[in-house]
């Protein structure tokens, strides 16, 4: 497997780093072994890959040959099949969770599907969950909320299919629930010409309101991922401008039929403004 990674990124140093800086970085990486539940086997392979990179970059001759290869257009590193999972962990650690997730997902699919109950299956499943969550955080930081949700949903689907890591799946599901208001705002604020995206946003909005028990938030819940009344009202004022008058009327009338007095007022207001 070839990964979009070079030796400098793998160990976490810049191309101008000295041998002493590389050795310090190498020791720090060994000391900061991921403690998320990976098998001893794959963590040992990770350490071996770090050691090989440190040896290459601290040897003047081998480093010069490698730098010449990079200058001549070489990109990516090849990993043997028995070390590809360790390579994917290092790719994730290098700050590329999206790329690591996509390659991990591929490794879990035919014809590469690992044997059931194998250490490879366990490590890949765990890595898929962790990278999907980090990829979502990265997308969310860039305000790409729908993309963030896609990563979380794919991670959840993988855990459901593999039947593993129930506690971690709950965390992904909580992250996805917390994203819902942002996804709605993301979808509704796009170009109105994109009708399907807009409809999807309206449907998500209706589901959120129903989940809360109407505009008033009548449902009693302890789920911190659902907006409380104050924050929901602020959110609703933000997205109202992206709804047409007819969409607002349809929404409020639907909620009024379910017993929402506040929706009845908004329906009257929208009709007569």
Give an account of the 3D structure.
α5 runs antiparallel to α6 and α5 runs parallel beside α7 (119-141). This protein folds into three domains: 1-94, Helix Hairpins (Orthogonal Bundle); 96-179, Serine Threonine Protein Phosphatase 5, Tetratricopeptide repeat, CATH 1.25.40; 189-273, no CATH class. It has 273 residues and is mostly helical. It is elongated, with a radius of gyration of 25 Å. The chain has helices at residues 7-11, 19-31, 40-58, 60-71, 84-93, 97-107, 119-141, 145-162, 166-188, 195-212, 229-240, 245-257, 261-272; strands at residues 2-3, 77-78. The protein has a two-stranded antiparallel sheet with strand order 1-2. Mean pLDDT is 88; it is low at 267-272. 69% of the residues lie in helices and 1% in strands.
Quick tags:
273 residues; mainly alpha; Helix Hairpins; 3 domains; two-stranded antiparallel sheet; 13 helices; elongated
Secondary structure blueprint with pairings:
Layout: E1 2-3, H1 7-11, H2 19-31, H3 40-58, H4 60-71, E2 77-78, H5 84-93, H6 97-107, H7 119-141, H8 145-162, H9 166-188, H10 195-212, H11 229-240, H12 245-257, H13 261-272
Distance between the termini: 62 Å
Q: State the helix count.
A: 13
Classified in CATH, the superfamily of the largest domain is: DnaJ domain
Overall outline: elongated
Please give the CATH class of the largest domain. Answer: Mainly Alpha
| CATH topology title of the largest domain | Helix Hairpins
List the helices and strands in order.
Answer: EHHHHEHHHHHHHHH
Based on helices, strands and strand pairing, what is the structural class?
Answer: mainly alpha
Radius of gyration equals: 25 Å
Helical content class: 55-70%
CATH architecture of the largest domain: Orthogonal Bundle
Instruction: Name the strands of the widest sheet in spatial order.
Output: 1-2
Task: Note the main sheet.
Answer: 2 strands, antiparallel
Strand content: under 5%
Report the average pLDDT across residues: 88
């Amino acid at each position: 497997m070839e990964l979009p990674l070079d030796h400098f990124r793998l160990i976490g140093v810049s191309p101008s780093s000295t041998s002493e800086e590389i050795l310090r970085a190498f020791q720090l990486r060994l000391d900061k072994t991921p403690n998320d539940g990976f098998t001893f086997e794959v963590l040992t392979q990770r350490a071996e890959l770090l050691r090989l990179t440190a040896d290459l970059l601290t040897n003047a001759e081998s480093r010069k040959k490698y730098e010449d290869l990079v200058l001549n257009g070489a990109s990516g590193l090849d990993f043997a099949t028995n070390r590809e999972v360790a390579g994917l962990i290092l790719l994730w650690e290098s700050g590329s969770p999206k790329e690591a997730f996509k390659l991990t997902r591929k490794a879990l699919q035919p014809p590469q599907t690992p044997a059931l109950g194998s250490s490879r299956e366990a490590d890949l499943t765990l890595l898929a969950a962790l990278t999907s969550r980090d990829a979502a955080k990265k997308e969310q930081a860039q305000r790409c909320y729908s993309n963030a949700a896609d990563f979380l949903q794919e991670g959840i689907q993988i855990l459901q299919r593999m039947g593993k890591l129930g506690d971690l799946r709950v965390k992904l599901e909580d992250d996805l629930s917390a994203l819902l208001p942002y996804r709605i705002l993301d979808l509704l604020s796009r170009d109105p010409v994109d009708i399907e995206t807009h409809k999807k946003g309206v449907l998500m909005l209706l589901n959120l309101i129903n989940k809360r028990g109407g505009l008033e938030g009548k449902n009693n819940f302890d789920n911190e991922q659902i907006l409380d009344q104050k924050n929901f009202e602020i959110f609703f004022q933000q997205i109202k401008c992206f709804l047409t008058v007819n969409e607002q009327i349809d929404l409020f009338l639907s909620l009024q039929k379910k017993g929402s007095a506040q929706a009845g007022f908004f329906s009257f207001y929208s009709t007569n403004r």
